[in-house]
Amino acid sequence: MYGSLLAAPDRLWTRGEVMARDCPVPAVPGVYGWHFTAAPSGELPAGRLLYVGISPRRMSERPSSQHLRKRIRYHYRGNAYGSTLRLTLGCLLGLELRRVGSGTRLTFTHKGEAALTEWMHEHARVCWIEHPEPWTVESALLQELDLPLNLDQNRHNAFHARLTALRAEARRRARELPIAT
């Protein structure tokens, strides 16, 4: 049920709409899906759902401050250190991953993150479904849908090994370079 709602939504939202003051994304738990008008790699299809995420990751005894609006906005404007989606897209687009700060965080630095944000502005579209316990549907979505950009719980996907290797190589190269200023 949720898979079809994410794969063929009634509406996809742009970065401009999500980042606007009157943001349509609710501040509640749920599942979100990323569609791309252009593929981040020639090995992937364009114009369809390639990644799903949830927010919050899992409820603990204390309430989470994470919700759909925060998480989706972060993917659109954050950095690769805090967004596995941004890390994946940047690696697929050939951006150079670098160590920053104390050297433990990896991002595409200011120029690379800005290029990724612009690419997402042009090509990334998002939809979402409100769900009080999104972690309860995540595994089923990963089994039901072909989601090549998801790694966690998705080893069965044909693109998993390629994406895992690509991200590992980007991390290895970043650790060999000096810390970016």
UniProtKB/TrEMBL annotation:
<protein>
    <recommendedName>
        <fullName>GIY-YIG catalytic domain-containing protein</fullName>
    </recommendedName>
</protein>
<dbReference type="Pfam" id="PF20815">
    <property type="entry name" value="GIY_YIG_2"/>
</dbReference>
<dbReference type="InterPro" id="IPR049311">
    <property type="entry name" value="GIY_YIG_cat"/>
</dbReference>
<feature type="domain" description="GIY-YIG catalytic">
    <location>
        <begin position="48"/>
        <end position="169"/>
    </location>
</feature>
